[in-house]
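A further point concerns the way the authors explain their paired sequence and structure data. Showing the layout once, in full, would remove most of the difficulty. For illustration, here is how one protein appears when written out as sequence plus structure tokens:
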Amino acid sequence: MPTLKITVGERTRLDQRTRQRISAAQEGAALDDVQPVLNVGSYAELSRLLSPTNLELLEAITEHEPASIRDAAEVVDRDYKQVHRNLSELEDIGIIDFDGGGAGQAKKPQLAYDGLEIDLPFAGPGGNADTAHS
């Protein structure tokens, strides 16, 4: 599984990188460094994504491999409805997937990536955020 790269509010730089990769692909260049990218619009969105409760859920899924949402709720000792809501949000943005969930089947939460890489470019005095990475 690849690592998901998360960026914040840098749509211009992301669009520029995408255009460069399309041009390279059209010229026949090999694109072996494909890494999925999730761009969130603000630090508030990033904070919500990386809330302690969501991180605890991701860690619990990794360590305990719960067979269902209910099992995940028991592992983190939280209410089923809250865990269901958090897992649904994480599914909506592609951080987790559910296995099963058909008629009468439990939905098993699974991580979609090996890890998360956070890229926070900070603009320097000249306002160029393209050269500053954390």
Q: What stands out?
A: The helical segments are 11-26, 43-49, 52-64, 69-76, 80-92. The CA atoms of residues 7 and 39 lie 5 Å apart. Confidence is low (pLDDT under 50) at residues 127-134.
